[in-house]
Structure formats: structure tokens, C-alpha cells
Amino acid sequence: MGLPRPTLHVAPAPAERKLDSERSRRLLLDAAMDEFAEKGYAGARVQDIADRAGLNKQLISYYFGGKKGLYLELHQQWLRREATIADPARPLHELIVRYLDESFADPRPTRLNLWNGLTGGAVEPDPEDLSGLRRRQAAGELAEDLDPAAAMLLFMSLVSAPVAMPHIVRQLFGVEPDSPEFREHYTEQLRRIVRHLA
């Protein structure tokens, strides 16, 4: 009876390493979004993010340079996503509803933004660009006596309210904020409110 043959470990091909790297990055980003949305930047722990992703926490430093880099990458992801949402050709009431749809589909970015406002985060927010809203105001989509900054704050509040205050949604509407009934009703009301501001 002979000795067992040693197992040969073959290094993965470059294409396989790239796929594994992309998969690891995606898992870490998704886990980080969950963790930051639940606990904010300050409350999130690198080990908890790694555990959620099922990966070694050293990979966070390897791929993103640490917790802050991971947070910054999530911020960049949102900016890329927002660029596909903010269509200047879309009527203002439909644009705001598009942001609401995004928040309903995945409330985590809204929660992350709320945490950032309450406790701060790794990203110092850029000044909000009001030029698009000013153009819409000049075109008659927003009444000329309204301050675009106040209107922007109102729109952000309207979009984030169901995520920020689900208990108030239950009190006022008598339904869950993630129910189809509430979503349909609130979406239509949001359209009407924005149109009334013209």
C-alpha cells in the first residue's frame, strides 16, 4: 500500500481571479450598504460587514482601503445611479416620483442618507446643485415665488418620509409603508403636490 498522492493546487486563471475579485467586491459593498443603513457610519463595524459578506475582513482594506473607502465607494455608486434617474426631460412631478420609486425599491440609500444627517458620515456632502430646479422654475414647473432651495428640501423630505417615519405612515394612513396600497396612494399624492407647486 503506497502513500496518498499529494493534491496539486492549481492557481486560478486570471479570468477566474477577476470574477472572484468582482464577486468579493460586490458582496462587500452589499453587506456594507446593509450595515451602514442599519447602524450609520459610526456604528458600523468592519468585522460585521465582513461577516455579512462571508469574507475575511482584510479584503475590505485590500479592495477599498478600509471602512471609509467602502463608504466612499457606496457614495460613488449612488452618484452613478442618480445620474440615470435625474433626466432633465422628465416633468418635475415624474422626476420626484422616480426618486420615490427608488426609495421604495431599496430604502437602504435613504436610510444611509438619514444616518449621515443625524450622525455624520465619511462623506462631506457636496453643495446641492439647484441649477436644474432653477431652469424648471424659469420654464414654469415651479412657481416663481418659491425658493428652489426650500423646494429641494421639501422634495427630499417627501421622498424620504415613508422610510424615515414608518410609524407616522401607520398612524396617518392606517397601512404599512411598504404596502402596495400606500405606495400607490402616496405616489399619486406626491405627483399632485408637486404639480400644485407650479
UniProtKB/TrEMBL annotation:
<dbReference type="InterPro" id="IPR009057">
    <property type="entry name" value="Homeodomain-like_sf"/>
</dbReference>
<dbReference type="InterPro" id="IPR036271">
    <property type="entry name" value="Tet_transcr_reg_TetR-rel_C_sf"/>
</dbReference>
<dbReference type="InterPro" id="IPR001647">
    <property type="entry name" value="HTH_TetR"/>
</dbReference>
<keyword id="KW-0238">DNA-binding</keyword>
<feature type="domain" description="HTH tetR-type">
    <location>
        <begin position="22"/>
        <end position="82"/>
    </location>
</feature>
<protein>
    <submittedName>
        <fullName>TetR family transcriptional regulator</fullName>
    </submittedName>
</protein>
<feature type="DNA-binding region" description="H-T-H motif">
    <location>
        <begin position="45"/>
        <end position="64"/>
    </location>
</feature>
<dbReference type="Pfam" id="PF00440">
    <property type="entry name" value="TetR_N"/>
</dbReference>
<dbReference type="InterPro" id="IPR050109">
    <property type="entry name" value="HTH-type_TetR-like_transc_reg"/>
</dbReference>
